[in-house]
Amino acid sequence: MSTGNNGNSDPFKIIFVLIFLSMTLGAFTHCVIEPPKSATKKNSRSTSSIENTNTNTNVPTPTVTPMPTVPPAPTTPIGNPGQDFFNSTVLPNFQNNCMVCHAALAANPPLPGPLEIYNYNEMRQKLLNGSNATDNELIRKMQGILGHAGGNRCPGGTTDTVCQVVVDWYAQEQGPTAPTPTPPPVNVNGVTGMISVVSSTGKATGYTGDTFVPTKTLGVSFYLDGPSGAGILLNNSPIQANLAGFNGGIAGAHAFTFYVPILYRDGVSHTLYVYADDNGIETELQGSPYTFTAYTSTIEGFNYYNGTVKPLLDNRCSGCHAFSYDQNFSSLLTPSPANGGSMTNNEMINMPSGSNMGRNHPGGNLCGSKDNSPCVEIQMWWDLEFN
Ligand code: HEC
Ligand code: HEC
């Protein structure tokens, strides 16, 4: 029966395909005259960042700034071009291209991939763990250069759209704490490396190695709030840069991670000075000093989460989520208080309220109002962690 149908429909198919092709070609010749769309974003961004510098009431208004003749524009969320670009461009591309696998278990993905790929901070950390826009942990993962269960998502190279938007995103990450996209300098002994990121939970990530002797493992030393000799030495002896991970192109395992001691994850801005240690000879890494503000959980917050928040979430959210404290804590810190986060404005409370930074919650608005459960408990939890 099905063969008969196919036979009958063949002429129709051919006619249909011809009509479709002529329509498509027609569309192509017409769309050439459409104007480009995305060229005029920069001005609004720089305006909002100038406004932001004036919101700190302790700092006197710079005298060079002419007094505005009109009242200042209404307060906008803290400008972060990198995060804006991630939300507006990278995220939709990832959702279109990666959701087959990177989806909640309830959606029965064929090969479940982690949902972290939709998290700005997690992906930014991978993006900045590298030497430039086309050579970093995220791009390598997407191309399957670093083992990726999802394979190479950009078989045509980094100009394939979903990789190209990541390359473009790199250019947006030019904040005060972002490393510059030039390759790190190599000292006379061949030593090079980079401190790529210090997360808001105090995890420092980078790599260092000897380009002349790639098999050699170097040490790394960390000083807080001052360079070697002046700052507080954070490690008793240099840690070893011998982890698998991004290695800046030096063959072998040269990555390192280091947690800033809890004492200094105190919600206050610090600088981290990072040095390769080659038998006592220190070489400062690119990206050092790195300015960061890190947070740690409080006993009260941890207990409240486990005793009150977690049972509520297990009840309401477990159809789609398998939450852990660390994962939820990182959402609670997105953005961190230093970056404009508050009790009622962070990913942990915004998502179950319907959306966060233009990203809709597939689970919908489950709180109704942020003063309803479980959002009101999430506010209480935030308060116990950060106030
Ligand atoms: C065919 C399924 C599949 C597709 C499609 C897929 N992935 Fe994955 N991805 C996985 C799986 C499974 C993992 C976890 C195992 C691993 O690390 O390889 C993963 C891991 C990752 C990780 C590491 C996450 C982490 O937190 O360590 C990144 C980054 C990633 N994928 C990015 C992407 C992006 C971006 C796309 C879309 C352009 C994509 N993937 C498409 C299956 C897939
Ligand atoms: C119907 C399924 C569903 C339910 C129910 C649901 N969620 Fe989600 N939620 C999702 C999906 C899917 C994502 C990932 C969306 C994305 O990455 O764009 C998500 C993302 C989130 C995120 C962002 C962090 C992350 O893991 O990506 C938070 C926070 C969150 N949900 C909180 C909650 C809370 C709290 C509840 C329960 C009160 C809840 N969700 C219930 C589907 C659901």
Characterise the protein shown here:
The chain has 387 residues and is of the alpha+beta class. It folds into three domains: 104 residues, no CATH class; 105 residues, Immunoglobulin-like (Sandwich); 88 residues, no CATH class. Helices cover 33% and strands 18% of the residues. The protein has ten helices and 13 strands. The strands form four sheets. Strands 5, 6, 7, 9, 10 and 11 form a six-stranded antiparallel sheet that branches. β9 and β10 form a beta hairpin. The longest helix has 30 residues. The protein is globular and about 60 Å long. The protein starts with a helix and ends with a helix. The site of one heme C (HEC) has 22 residues, from α7, α9 and β13. The site of one heme C (HEC) has 22 residues, from α3, α4 and α5.
Helices and strands, with pairings:
Elements: H1 2-31, H2 42-53, H3 81-98, H4 120-127, E1 130-132, E2 135-136, H5 137-142, H6 161-172, E3 191-198, E4 203-210, E5 219-224, E6 232-233, E7 239-240, E8 255-259, E9 266-278, E10 281-284, E11 290-295, H7 299-317, H8 325-332, H9 347-350, E12 353-356, E13 359-365, H10 375-386
Antiparallel strand pairs: 1-2, 3-4, 4-8, 5-6, 5-7, 5-9, 9-10, 9-11, 12-13
Low-confidence stretches: 1-9, 14-78
Report mean pLDDT, rounded to a whole number.
Answer: 79
Largest sheet: 6 strands, antiparallel
Number of domains: 3
Number of strands: 13
The percentage helix is 25-40%
CATH topology of the largest domain: Immunoglobulin-like
Order of helix and strand elements from N to C terminus:
HHHHEEHHEEEEEEEEEHHHEEH
Structural class: alpha+beta
Report how far the terminal alpha carbons are from each other. 71 Å
Query: Any idea what the shape is?
Result: globular
**What share of the residues does DSSP label as strand, in percent?**
15-25%
CATH class of the largest domain: Mainly Beta
Q: What is the count of DSSP helices, taking H or I runs of 4+ residues?
A: 10
Each distinct ligand:
heme C
- Gyration radius from CA atoms, angstroms: 25 Å
CATH architecture annotation of the largest domain: Sandwich
